[in-house]
Amino acid sequence: MPLLTILSCKILQDEIVHILENDSSVDEILVVGNGQEDDFVFKLRKSGIDFRIISPAKIRSDTESYRNNPEQYTVMIYMVELALHEFPKILKAEIYKLLDELSTCSNAILMFYGLCGNVFDKIESDYAHLEGTCPVRILRDETRTVDDCVGATLGGCQEYLATLKKFSEHGTFLFTPMFAHAWREIMRVDPEKPEKTIKMLRKVNEVTGYKRVAKVRTGLTYTENFDEKVDEFAEIFDFEVLEVEGGQSLFEKCYSDIKDEVLVKSH
């Protein structure tokens, strides 16, 4: 049975915990200890999920026995730094580098990413040469790759567009629990001088017309204090707070599809 690697933005760690917690067929979980896994590991432990940390320098040697074990289905998780989203070219280069490396020790790779500003619009075609050995997949709905993590949580591109149209009167931030947890990191708020960054963000919001923040209900509770963190953000920027329903169906389907694909190939 295969080794499936999930290469993920840290913002989607809750969705991975949910998948692992609800898949009893996983024999072993490996988490790459690259310095980005702390929150994820905490949630795995809290959920009672067993796993093993492996060194990024020894991925190939540490996974060899799993990849070639016909009796065991293994999932390896590699979390990627959030701050790279600020630099699309660097993000693309880093992800492509990781795909080149991880494809040598995986039977398949599922990217927990969307287009991310069209950075990954050609990812599957660029790695089409690996179809026979390590297919690479990305989050997609029935027709195309989703735009980003929020679009995936809302269920796909049509649902995302409908939500954006619904909120088009004023600019609206869409916060999932992890986005709410990490908004300071995502918006690069200086921890030493937060007020300076927040003052600049207020001006940007005024210029761009952002006046609201919406809580995207994912159905997951792994990240604590979601409501409090969104309310804090709203208070800082004097925003109205709204709510929108999301879910896990798209993540579950993408995972199930690639899992079924590699399980069939392994027999």
Automatic annotation (TrEMBL):
Give the source's domain of life in one word. Archaea
Where would I find the DUF1638 domain in this sequence?
Answer: 80-255
For this UniProt entry, the molecular function terms from Gene Ontology, in alphabetical order, are: kinase activity
Which InterPro entries does the UniProt record give?
DUF1638
Q: Which UniProt keywords apply?
A: Kinase, Pyruvate, Transferase
What name does the UniProt record give this protein?
Answer: Pyruvate kinase
Q: Which organism is it from?
A: Methanolobus tindarius DSM 2278
The organism that produces this protein has a lineage beginning with:
Archaea, Methanobacteriati, Methanobacteriota, Stenosarchaea group, Methanomicrobia
